[in-house]
Design goal:
This protein is an alpha/beta fold. It has helices at residues 40-50, 77-89, 102-109, 125-134, 139-159, 169-174, 176-188, 193-196, 199-202, 215-221, and strands at residues 16-20, 28-33, 58-59, 64-65, 94-98, 116-122, 164-168.
């Protein structure tokens, strides 16, 4: 045997895997689902760079639209959510929202969301629970809650009939450009190579948002409208 032969090539799993294809690219509501401290802020930021209207008043520290914050606490939650969604989608065909606990209330508002495109973010459960512990939560309780939400996310992926892509947060960190390109292809059916060149600036492990990474400023520099 030739000891100098080339090493065997190994297939590397993709950061984004399409479970159900999107039959209406460039149109619909992108629903970013995941968990608190689970990587949804970065994925929502990538959606912003892709051209998805993720809100009218976006908090750059977590890429959440302030107009949706706290609505679930109100008795008239459905009416408030529908009103905020109608304002968000006015004048555009591609919009979306990110809430790391939306999986908890999705069934309450599912019928209000037109043409949903699910982007479901998965991260190592221990990493999520540890980040929550650093925020003051009990580690064991966090692991329990993370497990419950993980199961709920898997059920949505398995049972929904709508276009769905799943994102590995760890794989995304290792190959941000591929993640952006695959997510953009799923959502819009195309990829901007100009924007792809800047993705490395927007995805860095352990970087603080918005002081070190600000998706809104990056988008503005690239000529995107928030």
């Amino acid at each position: 045997m030739d000891s100098q032969s080339a090493p065997k090539l190994v297939d590397v799993p993709d950061p984004v895997v399409v479970v159900r294809e999107n039959d209406h690219p460039g149109r619909g509501c992108v629903v970013v689902l995941g968990q608190p401290r689970g990587g949804t802020s970065v994925v929502a930021g990538l959606c912003h760079l892709i051209g998805v209207r993720m809100g009218h008043d976006i908090d750059p520290s977590n890429m959440e639209a302030r107009e949706f914050l706290g609505l679930v606490k109100h008795e008239d939650f459905r009416a408030r959510f529908e009103s905020a969604l109608n304002e968000l989608k006015f004048g555009t065909q591609l919009f979306g929202f990110k809430d790391p606990v939306a999986v908890d209330y999705w069934q309450r508002i599912a019928d209000l969301v037109p043409d949903p495109l699910f982007v479901v973010v998965f991260r190592d459960p221990v990493a999520i629970a540890e980040r929550q512990r650093l925020d003051g939560a009990d580690l064991a309780e966090s692991l329990y809650q993370v497990g419950l939400r993980q199961s709920a996310l898997v059920r949505i992926v398995a049972e929904t009939k709508f276009p769905t892509a799943v994102v590995s947060y760890e794989r995304l960190l290792g190959d941000a450009r591929t993640a952006y390109e695959q997510l953009s292809q799923f959502v819009t059916g195309r990829v901007s190579l100009r924007i792809a060149e800047f993705v490395h600036e927007a995805v860095r492990p352990h970087a603080d948002m918005p002081s070190e990474i600000n998706f809104l400023k990056i988008g503005a520099r690239l000529g995107l409208v928030a």
